[in-house]
Amino acid sequence: EEAVLEERFEARIDEGAFIEAKDWMPEHYRKTLVRQISQHAHSEIVGMLPEGNWISRAPTLKRKAILLAKIQDEAGHGLYLYSAGETLGTSRDQMLQALHTGKAKYSSIFNYPTLTWADVGVIGWLVDGAAIMNQIPLCRCSYAPYARAMIRVCKEESFHQRQGFDSLLVMMKEGTPEQRAMVQDATNRWWWPSLMMFGPPDADSPNTAQSMRWGIKRLSNDDLRQKFIDATVPQAEVLGVTLPDPHLQWNEERQHHDFGPIDWQEFWRVVNGEGPCNRERLAARVKAWDDGAWVREAALAHARKKNTAAEA
Ligand code: 3HC
């Protein structure tokens, strides 16, 4: 019985069908989606922290307003994604518990500090740029609720990337030598961690094969990373910054840019909790959860009162 159901499921995936929450799905398909969607949601929520550091320090009201809008968007992206996760039978409390106890991951990129105002622009340019590269194929993910969430997210993400690039362009073209040096310094610090956002090399990726088989992942980690590099090199030229990789060069034969080795020891160290800001980020999320307990209790008590009144 189970084997027949599994076969029919695989046939649907091969036909390019989209799976809805009420459709039959293999337990492993459900589990890997809960894993990926919840960690994607955690990334959005934790991703608010590095930038939040600069709301009170933004150089102009315009930049402050843009940054506030971007951070609010990310909170919304997190909520869409937690909701998509809930369609798979898990609960928000369970997903958040996994984050707070260190069981669940979030994107390693958010474990780096934002040292100057240029970091905010470079995060928009590189981190949101990488996120868009990764999220566009997810709009065609075989799990329909996740794909639908991604369509809305991608629209807002392109504003995030453009505002970051714009703020850097102003500093590079109209700024002082110190501001140009600040942009170059931020680019040096964020380039390699941004490449790591796409995940380990395909050969070291335990989830890629199955996720591609099931239409969850439409392009592999290495293919997306290469696409991102090819798209970003000309943008760095427009900005007038150099990317911190002496091996970076166009390969006419491959029709792609060759690039230098990525430090996968650093990647796994940061993923496993030893990055510059891991403890601080997780502590901030746990504190927010504890400080917000009374709001959740009050809302639940109010809902119960309203329901009993309605039943009476
Ligand atoms: N940071 C932390 N963990 C990472 C990682 C990273 N950059 N890249 C990979 N990993 C983890 C994986 O989660 C997996 O661990 P797990 O099995 O415990 O979950 C392990 O490393 C091996 O990686 P795989 O390549 O086998 O795992 P996946 O097939 O899941 O691929 C992925 C990793 C490409 C990140 C994929 O999960 C994915 O596309 N996720 C959705 C997109 C996402 O999460 N993006 C985060 C970007 S930040 C963001 O969106 C906020 C933006 O608005 C700024």
TrEMBL record:
Pfam families: PaaA_PaaC. InterPro entries: Aromatic_CoA_ox/epox, Ferritin-like, Ferritin-like_SF, PaaA, PaaA_PaaC. NCBIfam families: PA_CoA_Oxy1. PANTHER family: 1,2-PHENYLACETYL-COA EPOXIDASE, SUBUNIT A (PTHR30458:SF2), PHENYLACETIC ACID DEGRADATION PROTEIN PAA (PTHR30458). This is 1,2-phenylacetyl-CoA epoxidase subunit PaaA. It comes from Ideonella lacteola. The gene is paaA.
